[in-house]
Amino acid sequence: MGISRRVMLAAGGAALAAPAFGARVAAAADTYPSNTALYADPALVAGVDYGQRFRRHGVSDDSETAPSPALPAAVVIAPHGGGIEPGTSELCLAIAGYDPATMAATPAGGPVYDFWMFEGLRASNNGVLHVTSTHCDDPVALALCGGVRRAVSLHGCTPQQAGFADGTAAALVGGADAALRSALRSALSAAGFTTRDAAGVGELDGDDPANIANRTLSGGGAQLELTTPLRQAMFTSFTRAGRRTSTTGLFWSFTAAVRSALAAV
Fold it and tell me: Which of the residues 26, 134, 139, 159 could staple to 33 if both were Cys, CB 3.0 to 4.6 A apart?
């Protein structure tokens, strides 16, 4: 059953306001306890050190009697894009239905999804800009996730962090949306990708209600952790400038699998 705009206005406010998390404490490896704190640092310059990109597709309801139009089904996000977890920005765009090189709708017939990403733009030392997903409080990210039933969040990790042997190209599938989690594993495995359920893999599980991917109308989303070897294999040039124009067949195969999982649920 679809969710009307009127239902969203009631439920979306609750999704953004709860649960309450109180004062943020930076994760062990993070410099900043929240996006708000990062944006407030005068030593950082938006558009130089970091940037945000997003797209919210328009929907209107100006009739008192006609049924409300369907809301966006999902949002695709990359909380650590650009140089923080390389490759996740490009995947975010492609899974949302946009060619990362041209921003043309791809495939041309859609569907397209809302997207949001926070990106490190520095030539180096982008890791200092990492804000763990349970501390993400970017207002656009909260609004986009709070207005849809499902979210897919793209992340990067090492094989060892995900419990794989060194050099393994694989994806860890987590998040609080059990149906989407299952659909993603099935679609990715059918496409030939090595996957593992993220249950029990610490914060990489992605099932914390505070995780930005789970701040949806349904209270759930999916978190995809891609190992470095997998992300590197998706591009012939793994530099920030080169990635958008050097996507490989593996990149598009992964994109298609995730999009098919979204369509299935």
Answer: 26
Distance CA 240, CA 232 (A): 12
Burial string for 101-140 (b: 16+ CB within 10 Å, else e) reads: eeeeebeeeeebbbbbbbbbbbeeebeebbbbbbbbbbeb
The count of structural domains within the chain is: 1
Report d(CA 206, CA 214) in Å as an integer: 8
Q: What is the DSSP string of 152-167?
A: EEEEEE-TTTTTPPTT
Quote the CA–CA distance of 53 and 64 in Å, as a whole number.
34
Q: According to the model, what pLDDT value does residue 68 have?
A: 64
- Beta carbons within 8 Å of 167's beta carbon, 6+ residues apart: 159, 229
Task: For 4, list phi and psi in degrees, rounded to 5.
Answer: -80, 165
Report if residue 51 sits inside a domain: yes
Residues of the chain below pLDDT 70? 1-28, 68-70
Q: What does the DSSP 8-state code read for residue 212?
A: G
- Domain presence at residue 63: no
Element (H, E) at 241: helix 240-243
Residue 2 has a pLDDT of: 41
Quote the pLDDT of residue 27. 64
* 17 part of a folded domain: no
**Backbone φ, ψ for residue 242 (5° rounding):** -85, -25
